[in-house]
Design goal:
By secondary structure, this protein is an alpha+beta fold. It is built from 9 helices and 10 strands. The chain has a 4-stranded antiparallel β-sheet. A 3-stranded antiparallel β-sheet has the order 1-7-3. A hairpin with a 2-residue loop joins strand 9 (199-202) and strand 10. The radius of gyration is 17 Å and the shape is globular. The termini are close together.
């Protein structure tokens, strides 16, 4: 993702004809997303879809007696609720706000109606859904074969892309839960990045000081995710 503009926006909505994009805004409402807010639960009905404008969302999977694991991240490049295109009205995973911000919320019943009436919207979101499938597959490989240091760098870059500013709030425990590791391991890995003046961490707030070096330390999955997004949706970075 490139440096964000000051105006709240969503890349999917921006890629639609202006009349259709305006219609979506008219049918929904801009809402405030707060850190930790739950927007959906796995197996429960999907009551609304969300297009983040400034904030971002984690898609989280979990098992009984096991800590949660992040399986996807959604910011201003995407939407939460794309599974409705498949005719499935139950959420595949939990959805938790990871970064404060704004989102366009549209009731599911209204959104499904718009899908049936607008070929452009339907086609665009099918491509986006395919990107999500690719990223989920890549995420499984990353979790299995890449070390924590490179995965942490990738995850911080993904968060930075969607945060729209250099400084964002993330606790070590939250990061550990999302990466499926112990908090102590994140503390060590993040401390190494801070010692190299790549990031600055204080009281839960992370500031990216050297993005170039952070990209150099991230695994190749970060660039692959960006490549797949650009190829499938033909959108700017």
């Amino acid at each position: 993702m490139s440096e964000p503009s000051t105006k709240p926006s969503n890349s999917l909505l921006d890629n639609l004809p202006s009349q259709l994009s305006t219609l979506l805004f008219d049918k929904g409402r801009e809402m405030r997303m707060d850190f930790g807010q739950i927007l959906g639960r796995a197996g429960e009905p999907t009551l609304a879809v969300y297009f983040p404008l400034t904030g971002f969302i984690s898609q989280v999977a979990g098992m009984e007696y096991q800590k949660p694991l992040e399986v996807g991240m959604i910011g201003r490049e995407g939407m939460l609720g794309a599974h409705l295109l498949l005719g499935i009205h139950t959420a595949p995973s939990n959805a938790i706000v990871q970064g404060d911000g704004l989102a366009l919320e549209i009731p599911s019943k209204i959104f499904v109606g718009l899908l049936t009436q607008n070929h452009k919207l339907n086609t665009l979101l099918k491509h986006y859904l395919f990107v999500q499938f690719i990223q989920l597959t890549q995420g499984c490989l990353c979790q299995s074969f890449h070390g924590l240091s490179s995965r942490l760098a990738k995850w911080l870059l993904m968060s930075h892309d969607r945060a729209r500013h250099e400084n964002f709030y993330l606790t070590h425990q939250f990061i550990a839960d999302m990466l499926g590791v112990r908090r102590s391991a994140v503390t060590i890995a993040a401390g190494q990045l801070q010692d190299k003046n790549i990031i600055q961490y204080s009281r839960g707030y992370i500031n990216i000081l050297n993005r170039v070096e952070l990209e150099a330390r991230a695994c190749e999955c970060y660039q692959l995710d960006r490549k797949h997004y650009k190829q499938q949706l033909n959108l700017s970075d």
